[in-house]
Design brief:
The structure holds two protein chains of two kinds. Chain A is of the alpha+beta class. In chain A, the strands form three sheets. In chain A, strands 8, 9, 10, 11, 12 and 13 form a six-stranded antiparallel β-sheet that branches. In chain A, a hairpin with a 5-residue loop joins strand 10 and strand 11. Chain A starts with a helix and ends in a 5-residue tail after the last strand. By secondary structure, chain B is of the alpha+beta class. Chain B contains six helices and nine strands, in the order E-E-H-H-H-E-H-E-E-H-H-E-E-E-E. In chain B, the strands form four sheets. In chain B, strands 6-8-7 form a three-stranded antiparallel β-sheet. In chain B, a hairpin with a 2-residue loop joins strand 1 and strand 2. The radius of gyration of chain B is 24 Å and the shape is elongated. The chains are: A alpha+beta, B alpha+beta. Chains A and B meet through strand 4, strand 10 and strand 12 of A and helix 3, helix 5, helix 6 and strand 7 of B.
């Protein structure tokens, strides 16, 4: 009987299944990954957090797990980290500022937004009847959401902020040539020959970075940043072009890219 | 609703299956409006408030790369961009009043968002307020990209993101779209970065480079009539004080 149980459990683990109550992401791993994201944000965006950040300070982190996402809230520094899962594998990470004054209010806000059919939210009774307009619908009660979302808290020592390893070692990003061709194709969506001469700057990066910021000088048409992230299948996908003009604040990012350029490409492309 | 008359809804698109005309898949620009017969190209390029706002919503939002295509964050970001711009117009037109904390209201003409009674076009053209806008419309870089999307298949993700931007603009203009930060106040600004003034605290983000800011709920008064608030009573002018007596000199005996 005992042998059967061991064999059954081994099968479960081999197939990547988890026991009820088992964490999707161990606390130590959440801490480690959140530290990495804080470091990344500090280096590429100029500040790790909107509130005072003191390396070595111990703060409380509240972790919320859903079937496809793990979220870590640190209201003391005004930051949340998100880890999105697909088939037990993290495929996207994100770090962002939160307005909440406590972890419990951040968690309540997260719970309120969880488990909806995505769509536009309309004022009372004003949703259009057209079936082609996506309308947000709440599918779960507060109690049901709290049963699905598992919470735990732990303390977290804010790490020292240092440039990522790949910056210090000037390590060429893996498969840079392929990335270059994806970047060029995306930048050319915004570029036309009458924009004049420009250039694209790709910095050193790690495939595990939450976003790779690329600088695009589109000549007379504009200058700005495009972020590249990986989708579920590991393919690169890109966000919207974000002009490097007020009210946007990209100066630190552009300075970092210029000082740590792994590849630059002229616009228009030079004929071979 | 405009001038008290309900407008015919022009918001339903056949997005779920490929659209064909005489056996050829239609482009995004050619996608037909069943209700009105207009094409999507006509609507998104229209020289009216909804067309302009739709182009800006599309240019200023992530369209799904960072926050996931058609996730709640994707829809909320589009709604927040559209509503924040319409909120500025409403503030300039006294439909939303901002308390100054001393029994009066902030003069909206001093906010840097446009003139009192300003239009949507004036709000979007304010220098330094919307990075995607130049000379009253989206910049040439965004125009280049949008034209490419309009040539894609009508059922492509890029086209649907453009249609969703138009829908957000349309319903924000109709004032029936919810402000995604409505529990915190009235959303009025967004940009990459965290710098903000004391009037507009940070409200949040939707996993994209945009951060959103707004007027705290405690300072907001809705005034649907748009009637300017009465000016606070002026303090009465004090009569001039009588000249002081010299100190330390007694009355001569």
């Amino acid at each position: 009987m005992r042998r059967h149980l061991i064999a059954w459990l081994s099968c479960l683990f081999l197939l990547g299944w988890r026991l009820p109550g088992q964490e999707r992401m161990a606390t130590a791993q959440v801490i480690q990954e959140t530290s990495r994201l804080l470091n990344w944000r500090w280096f590429w965006e100029g500040q790790a957090s909107p509130k005072t950040y003191t390396p070595g300070k111990v703060v409380e982190v509240t972790i919320v797990e859903s079937p496809n996402e793990v979220a870590a809230f640190i209201s003391e520094i005004g930051v949340a980290a998100y880890f999105l899962f697909d088939d037990d594998k993290t495929f996207r990470e994100n770090i962002q500022s939160i307005p909440d004054v406590s972890n419990s209010s951040a968690v309540n806000r997260y719970i309120a937004k969880y488990g909806v059919t995505p769509g536009f939210a309309f004022k009372e009774e004003r949703a259009p009847a057209s079936p082609d307009v996506p309308v947000r619908r709440d599918n779960l009660t507060e109690e049901q959401k709290r049963q699905i979302l598992k919470q735990r808290s732990t303390s977290f020592t804010l790490p020292d902020l240092v440039p990522p390893d790949y910056i210090a070692s000037r390590r060429a990003p893996p498969d840079l040539a392929r990335f270059e061709s994806i970047v060029r194709s995306r930048v050319e969506d915004f570029y036309s020959a009458n924009c004049g001469a420009g250039e694209i700057l790709i910095p050193y990066f790690s495939p595990t970075d939450p976003t790779v910021y690329v600088y695009a000088d589109l000549g007379t048409c504009d200058k700005g940043i495009i972020g590249f992230v990986r989708d579920k299948t590991g393919q690169w996908t890109s966000g919207q072009f974000s002009p490097a003009r007020p009210p946007n604040q990209w100066s630190t990012t552009i300075q970092r890219i210029r000082r740590n350029t792994a590849a630059s490409m002229p616009l228009p492309a030079k004929a071979n | 609703m405009r001038n008290g008359k309900p407008r015919k809804c022009t918001c339903g698109w056949k997005q779920t299956r490929r659209i064909y005309r005489r056996g050829v898949a239609l482009s995004c620009s050619e996608a037909p409006r069943l209700e009105t017969g207009q094409t999507f190209g006509d609507l998104i390029n229209a020289n009216d408030d909804v067309g302009l706002l739709a182009r800006v919503v599309w240019a200023e939002s992530d369209n799904g790369a960072s926050n996931g295509f058609q996730t709640q964050a994707y829809f909320d970001e589009k709604a927040a961009v559209a509503v924040s711009i319409v909120n500025r117009v409403d503030i300039l037109n006294y439909k939303i009043l901002i308390s100054n904390g001393h029994g009066g209201y902030i003069n909206p003409g001093t906010l840097g968002w446009g003139p009192v009674n300003g239009t949507l076009s004036q709000v979007l053209s304010q220098p330094g307020q919307y990075a995607s806008v130049s000379n009253g419309d989206i910049t040439q870089a965004f125009r280049n990209s949008m034209n490419k999307v309009l040539n894609e298949d009508a059922t492509s993700r890029d086209c649907i993101a453009l249609i969703n931007s138009w829908q957000a603009a349309y319903y924000a203009e109709e004032h029936i779209l919810k402000d995604p930060f409505g529990d915190q106040g009235v959303t009025t600004s967004f940009h990459h970065g965290m710098t903000t003034g004391s009037l507009e605290p940070y409200f949040g983000t939707f996993k994209s480079p945009n951060n959103f800011f707004g007027i705290a709920a405690s300072q907001v008064v809705y005034n649907p009539s748009g009637t300017p608030p009465p000016s606070p009573p002026r303090r009465p002018i004090r009569p001039p004080r009588p000249p002081r007596r010299p100190v330390g000199r007694g009355v001569p005996q």
